[in-house]
Design goal:
The chain is of the alpha+beta class and 463 residues long. The chain is built from 11 helices and 31 strands.
Length: 463
């Protein structure tokens, strides 16, 4: 589970390993009858079951073997090979031809994915794409005429409006829980790219990836996480707005990847004291605490310490509003800013760059039967600069390694920087794709890596 400390609470993803057991808490909206909506929508909601491998160290922690060792006063033997763990979450049909939305953390590292329909039919699901930053994943099952759910158009949801969730909390399939919208555009620590919808709907482990409905039966959000001190529902539930989810879905379906803009800044809110320092009548704006050299923000003339007051003519009162606006932009779009510096107001104009995002590295080679089993991204400016000091011009960052694949068998790890293959330099994702395309179907390739700042060469057998 993802965990983030916040005022003594924990942010918990709602994906659930099958062994978990925590008491449930029920909640309802008095005077609102959702019975017809539940009856109509339930066939569109699916249970997502996954199987993944768990290494022995993780298994030891999960089963409290270290405690058992202390109790017995002797070592407890661990399995020699990775064990399989099963878990589940929720998903829902977004198109009649079998596309399903769920959470990234539900299917992360899955060896196999199965969805169960309301009539107990089980279907094998294919992962089309997944975006960790937004916690959205897209699955596909074979078939037609699936009951796709309608989605809300535009940002019409209001704070205080009744909402309903359907999912599989603690394995209880097709459980419905209701509440109201508590807040919108919530910014969560470490989840900066998503303007979450907060509600008091009773969400629990197993609800991950399920739909959140308005009274019209439209999906307004994808359920994602809770804040809890116990592991169960405590009235703080967070869901990804459907507008954000559908943008990710469309990008994954059309291109197989998610493209974001890069601004090159770190920002924070202002408090009363900082507002006084900057001569503001109240706290407002986004304070730039860092501006990356040669980034779009730097090229537009922004500096650390500036306070951005508006973005494309939209006022910025809180830092998360900056993310709300930039998330809707595309690479190379023009942006306009109003900012405060040394008590004076200035205007700035710039152009967004491409963010360093994951690239589906194996896409061109799958047709040949060669599967490296990695995902990667281009290096950031700072990462490239650090390599240049070592005399290396470029590379690609390995962002994930499949448990089964040529890369995994060769010992390639997440976080490695791949800088060459068979003595051919790899400068970026494009040169990586070209080199992979030139590889034979069988044989061994020498892979040059930078691991924790040190050079490593591995032999990768192509199978």
């Amino acid at each position: 589970m993802k965990k983030t400390a916040l005022s003594g609470l924990l942010a918990l993803s709602l994906w659930m390993p099958v062994a978990m057991s925590v008491p449930m808490t029920a909640h309802a909206v008095v005077g609102v009858d959702f019975s017809q909506l539940v009856e109509q929508a339930s066939p569109s909601v699916v249970r997502v079951s996954i199987t993944k491998k768990v290494d022995t160290q993780t298994l030891a922690k999960a089963q409290a073997i270290e405690i058992l060792k202390d109790y017995l006063g002797q070592d407890v033997p661990l399995p020699d090979a990775p064990m399989l763990e099963q878990g589940y979450g929720t998903g829902f049909f977004i198109s009649s031809d079998g596309y399903i939305l769920t959470n990234h953390h539900v299917i992360a590292d899955a060896e196999s994915i199965t969805v169960t329909l309301s009539d107990r039919t089980e279907l094998d699901a294919k992962l089309i794409g997944s975006d960790e930053s937004s916690d959205i994943a897209v699955l596909k099952v074979q078939g037609t005429n699936f009951p796709a759910l309608p989605v809300a158009k535009g940002d019409t949801l209001k704070v205080g409006e009744p909402v309903l969730a359907i999912g599989s909390p603690f394995g209880f399939d097709y459980s419905a829980s209701a509440g109201i919208v508590s807040a919108k555009s919530r910014s969560i620590p470490s989840e900066g790219t998503v303007p979450f919808i907060q509600s008091d709907v009773a969400l629990n482990p197993g609800n991950s990836g399920g739909p959140l409905f308005n009274q019209k039966g439209e999906v307004v959000a994808v359920n994602s996480m809770i804040f809890s001190g116990t592991g169960g529902y405590m009235g703080l539930s967070f869901s990804i707005p459907i507008e954000t989810a559908m943008d990710i879905y469309q990008q994954i379906r059309d291109t197989g990847k998610v493209t974001r803009v890069r601004m090159g800044v770190t920002i924070q809110d202002l408090d009363r004291n900082l507002a006084q320092v900057y001569g503001l009548e109240r706290p407002k704006g986004a304070l730039l605490t860092k501006v990356v050299p040669q980034s779009p923000a730097d090229q537009a003339g922004l500096q650390a310490g500036d306070v951005v007051l508006s973005f494309n003519d939209m006022p910025i009162n809180l830092a998360h509003e900056w993310f709300d606006l930039t998330n809707k932009a595309k690479p190379h779009d023009t942006f306009y800013l109003t900012y405060l510096r040394d008590g004076k107001t200035y205007q700035a104009k710039g152009q967004f760059g491409d963010a360093a995002d994951d690239i589906a590295a194996d896409q061109k080679r799958q047709q040949d039967g060669v599967r490296l089993g990695v995902r990667l991204r281009n290096l950031t400016v700072l990462e490239r600069r650090a390599l240049t000091e070592q005399g290396i011009q470029g590379g690609v960052m390995i962002t994930s390694v499949d448990l089964v694949g040529n890369a995994s068998r060769a010992g390639i790890q997440t976080g490695d920087i791949l800088v060459g293959m068979n003595r051919v330099p790899i400068r970026d994702a494009e040169s990586f794709a070209a080199q992979v395309a030139a590889l034979p179907n069988k044989g061994v390739v020498a892979v040059q890596l930078i691991r924790q700042g040190e050079p490593v060469i591995l032999g990768m057998r192509l199978e």
